[in-house]
Amino acid sequence: MNILTFVLATLLILSLGTAASFQKHAISRRSQAAFIGLRKAERNLLRQSEIKTFKELQGTENKQSTPSITMASPAKKKPLSIPAVNPACCRLNLFPLIEQGKENQKARYELAAKMLKMFYSKLLVSMKRGTEFLLLDAIIEAGKRSLKDQPSIALETLTLPDPDLQPIYYLMLKGTKRSNLFNAKGYPPLIDFLKIERLDAPICLFHAHPHMLASFFGLKATPALYEKLHQEIQGGIEIEALLLLVGDPQLAFIDPEIWTLLDCHKPKHKRSSVETLVAEDQESGIAIRSDVRSANV
Fold this sequence. Notes:
Order of helices and strands: HEHHHHEHEEHHHEEE
Oligomer: single chain
Helix content: 40-55%
């Protein structure tokens, strides 16, 4: 009996030791794979940054002209260039809500709440109705507490007054790796569409990501509108003509103050002096992002 107990105890100790060894080995493999994936993503990010920098370098190109006969061909439309990240000049600024209050900035407040509901409906579906307003109020309150004398504050540094809203707020900030609101796939990072800066400016219509335009014109009308803005309209456009171009009669009943948040003139500036680059390692699925300043600034 004592021998059987000794054998069973020995086998138990050996099995526990083997399991611990395998677990340690698995953790080591996962850590190694994550490290390698991160390095690959960083190399992809560095490659993107170098390409962007070289494209912006000023230089002269010598071309030798050779006589040739060319046949006239119909003009081809250039493929639409949709930014991977909504530029900084196209993000809704919450600072006026902090400074003046939502009573004096009703249009901005309603638009921000609409964006939260439209972008993050998958996260809010299990929450009670009107959670987007609670979240927006919490973000404004947290920004008011955190913003001192600095010109701006990062949304990811805010601590919401209601701790129950903090987890869903972090999910909104992070977003999913891939998002397409028009196909109901994922949801975008909140930091790409909202900001808190003392220097306020209207949202640039011609540089805005389609997701940003959808908060103004709806998911159905935005794809066709985006194509017309970038392929047919050469100069700026008046808001009345823009609404006629969209062709949605329901937009006539929206608060006119909403349209003051849009800059419909043809931009004379680049999308932003700071561009957000996103790189991903396809094998490990690790994605990183970084802000890169323009070489010409």
